[in-house]
Amino acid sequence: MSRANPHLLQRLTAFQQALMAQRASSIGLPTAVAGSERETFLREFLKKVFPAHRRFTSGVITDAEGYLSGQVDIAVAAILILK
Questions:
Q1: C-alpha distance from residue 73 to each of 3, 8, 27, 34 (Å)
Q2: Domain residues of the chain, as ranges?
Q3: I need a labelling partner for 83 at 20 to 30 A (CA). Which of 3, 10, 35, 46 fits?
């Protein structure tokens, strides 16, 4: 069994600490405010970590049959680049 990459492990630990610190900062706020702040923080965080051709948003997802999901806090879309 291979060992975990120490550089990757360190980076993931730092990401986890940042996310947990943001969560702790919203304790005691009204639920809607805390949820909105967490969504914004996570969306901005993901934009920094993932390649630029990914887009992070929220909303509702539909399928080919016209069914709608409930509210989705974070949706990931890949931007198609044609050459």
A1: 34, 27, 19, 13
A2: 6-78
A3: 46
